[in-house]
Amino acid sequence: MHASARTAPAGAARNTGEWMPIRGLNGHLLVLAVFVALSVVLTYPLARDLDSRILGSPAPGDNFEYLYKVWWFKHALFDLHVSPFFNAGMFYPFGYPVTLSETTVANTIPALPLTLLFGEVVAYNLTMLASFVLLLIINLLQWWSGQRHCVRRS
Predict the structure, then answer these.
(1) In 6, 14, 86, 130, which residue has its Cα 20 to 30 A from 80's Cα atom?
(2) Per DSSP, what are the bridge partners of residue 86?
(3) pTM here?
(4) Residue ranges per domain, the chain?
């Protein structure tokens, strides 16, 4: 059945493509609070142990690599005053271009101020929590706008 042929049940709100069915600052803050609460619940016990644990399996995995990159960007820029995209100490004497692996600048750059304030473990964990919240917000905006998929069909 084509999407335009479906009808909403009587009394149900129709998605007409309007920008926001929730109006006002209080409604938006409520949605944000619900998303933060959901993220905290879904990642429990991360919020309780924000400064001592990181998300991921106990065995060394990608989580430790990303934690290292959060630390390395801060260390390279603010302690060594060098480019964070090349690590001369790794694979010495040749060095290692960090750009050969995932540099994850979408996580490491926003984590820089948090790393300076709280350290790399808290910064990493806060960016992970923020990614859950942002994902929920983006999905909600897609739902409200009527986009149910990432790629538009012609």
Answers:
(1) 130
(2) 97
(3) 0.72
(4) 24-145
